[in-house]
Request: fold
Amino acid sequence: MALPLIGAAPPVTLDIAVEGLRSERGDILLCLFHDKGDFPDCSHNTHARKASAPARNGMTIRIEGLATGRYAVSLIHDENGNNKLDTSLGIPREGVGFSRNPKFLFGPPRYDAAAFDADAPEIRQSVKVRYFL
Reply:
């Protein structure tokens, strides 16, 4: 049996509720960022944690074992299953969402607008998926 370190924070479990899907086709591709890095695109970010799951209304994606700190989530509703965000003239053709549901119109929100503190053993974020086309 391992003893906890004095002053060490317990690992954090993050539940991300995905809301507002227009269909249950394809997958939800999720990226969890611990710093500004390449937010919100994690295709080249080796430090972001990635998760995917079949798209389902009312779904929750759980990420366990996080260190306490500041994080931001970006997600894509990859309806056609090609593992990327499809766009037309720079406008997403598939759904996108971010933690804290910041308002955005021209381009994605900044990391600071989506960032939240993971400072309790269990954290929940609800992400509303937005569609533009």
About this structure: The first strand starts at residue 12 and ends at 19. The chain has a mean pLDDT of 93. DSSP finds one helix and ten strands in the chain. The radius of gyration is 15 Å.
